[in-house]
Amino acid sequence: MLKTGIGGDVPAFRVMDVITRANERAASLPPGAPGVIRLESGQPSIGLPEGAKAAVQAALMSGDPLGYTETLGRPSLRAAIAAHIRAWYGADVAPSRIMVTVGGSGAFPLAFLAAFTTGDEVALASPYYPPYLNILVALGLKPVILPCGLETGFQPTIEMLEALPRKPEGLIIANPANPTGSMMSRAEVERLALWCHANGVRLISDEIYHGLTYGKPICTASALSPSAIVINSFSKYFAMTGWRIGWMVLPEALVRPAERLAQNFFISAPYISQVAAEAALSCHAELEARRQTYESARAVMLDGLHAAGFSRISPPDGAFYAYAELPAAAPDAMAYCAWLLAEKNIAATPGLDFDAARGQRFVRFSYCLAPDMIAEAMARLAPGA
Ligand SMILES: Cc1ncc(COP(=O)(O)O)c(C=O)c1O
Fold it and tell me: pTM, whole model, 2 decimals?
């Protein structure tokens, strides 16, 4: 029998399996029955902003063949991203350090392969976004889990890094994080960035939920450390998940290695998605209105979860997730989520995907739906419902 390859044992990204089960449940319900409320998913339910739609239509009608682009991305998009970074963070990043990628997801293997060599250790907080760990493993790198709890907002600290038996080659952070929605303060990001730079630890900062924050200020690691790699995306705030478009800010020395890798892996990100992304960068009024809707949905969800007995919830600083510890009397997260789907027609994600050690006591609820849908879900969850 032929063997499977070096990535053949990579674990599933189980959220995708939860989505499949929720789809099956929805398809099995009789017509007219209350539908499944989808709190498992991490994607906006409204798509492309209007200005981006218009730009796509114009590009389709233009007669342009919309072929490959430069591997690093269309120069006009890279310049527009540099302008966006200046507007949002007051930081000057040369367009030559910006690389357009196939979603934030497409940036991870490029960043990891450009920055690390086989066997290198890369630290990350747990709970974590599962693909960080699974991609590291698939590439022959060693994830080093830093178990984090509510006391640090589920975020890593310098003390945790210094307590490791050996210094890792890399550290991944996410602000706001998935599944917790929590954010470090600017001072905390700065301390970590400076520590990493001084200690030869490559910092990879996932900033893909920037724009979806509810009061706490954002900062970019690229303004704080010349050696950090920043990963961002048009999927969340810009609501373009299916367009598969993201970007990286790279230190000068990693631009050419990442470009060579991408030339071979992908050639380029899709042309039409780059057109949409460039236009989306001018759609802030529409996108800010959507952010305010998430903020309302977040308030409804937090009230509802507390009323349903979830008293320990991660600090919901940003993104659109609440990571909640199950009440003591509840069964484990897999059983709880199966019950929730079967009995209440609510899909949610068990914490096991994000934290193999402690995730059985946690559930991730996403509030990227209209506030009235979240209210309906919370009514189904209410005691005695
Ligand atoms: C923290 C985090 N990083 C990266 C991604 C990848 O997103 P995309 O590939 O759509 O840009 C996601 C998607 O949910 C995420 O939650």
Answer: 0.95
